[in-house]
Amino acid sequence: MSVEKKSMLAAGIAYSLFGLSYLFSKMALNVTEPSILLFVRFSVTFVILNLMVVFRMMKLNLRGKNLLGPFLVGLLQPVLYFILENYGLKYTTTSFTGLVSSISPIFTAILGVIFLREKPNKKQWFCIGLSIVGVLMVSLGTSSGENTLTGCLCLLGAYLSGGIYSILVRKLSSKFSAFEMTYIMFTIGFVFFAGMTFVQYGDQAVSLVTQAVCDWKFLISCLYLGGFCSVGAYMLANYSLARLPVTRATIFNSFATIVSILSGVIIMGDPFTLTSAIAFVLILAGVTGVNRFAEKKEN
Question: Measured at the alpha carbon of residue 211, what is the angle toward residues 207 and 213, in degrees to the nearest 5?
């Protein structure tokens, strides 16, 4: 299998794993508060990453390297992204969240043009549009709560930070491996969210964490989010970003929508409508087209 195909497969698997994160996050949040979830999730991730180093499953060589770039990546994703997205979800409707998330590939594509000189061609822009329309068809079918200016700005900030994260990973890929980038990102996330939890809850933090992990649904959710999602998915995403133009790598984000809906249909018994089916076709056509119509010089 060529490097290009491996990178596309990695991106597809990564964003499919991200799609299931919504289901597991919802399960965990039925048990405890968001800050407790984030602390436990990143604790699981930090332990797994260090076990991989200790048992030499992955190589970690940071000696002599300038860590400023990866440090900025870690502040953007997961720290800033998670904070802004959580507040955005709190202060906007579900449909508006879907609307903003659907245009995130445009953010990334524009940033790629500005900073990386990776310009999608007309056919790729059209396919990006197809994928966005598919996501919009799904997201506009649900609504709850109210939209506020604070929520709107938080969501825009979250997805903009996600786009900048993709650009930085692409630029740093020649100096850091996918594992090294993932290790630094989530070490920063662990330190930040651990500190935030103990500042917020003080002496009660330990008892709240202990109470949460005693619930098997919460524990399973954190093992998935911290292991498969944070470690596995982000390593695969960082791998694909290092080898594919950012537009081609991040367009697979639409897969998260498909997997999220299918998991709701299969596991939660949500209805599957004709609109969902049409949206799936548009998303798949968009993702396929962006990669199918790539210029030869991108490969």
Answer: 120
Give residue-wise pLDDT tens across range 115-143. Answer: 888 888 888 899 888 888 887 787 666 55
SS3 5: helix
d(CA 96, CA 80): 20
Per-residue pLDDT of 183-236, as tens digits, reads 999 999 999 999 999 999 999 999 999 999 999 999 999 999 999 999 999 999
- Concatenated DSSP letters for 64-101? T---HHHHHHHIIIIIIHHHHHHHHHHSS-HHHHHHHH
Condensed to tens digits (0 to 9), the pLDDT of residues 244-295 reads 999 899 888 888 878 877 887 888 777 778 887 888 888 888 888 888 887 6
Whether 156 contacts 84, CB under 8 Å:
no
First to last CA, the chain: 14
Which residues have CB under 8 Å from 70's CB, separation 6+?
A: 172, 176, 180, 181, 184, 185
Domain ranges of the chain: 3-298
Neighbours of 177 (CB within 10 A): 17
Question: For 125, how many CA atoms within 13 A lie in the half-sphere containing its CB?
Answer: 9
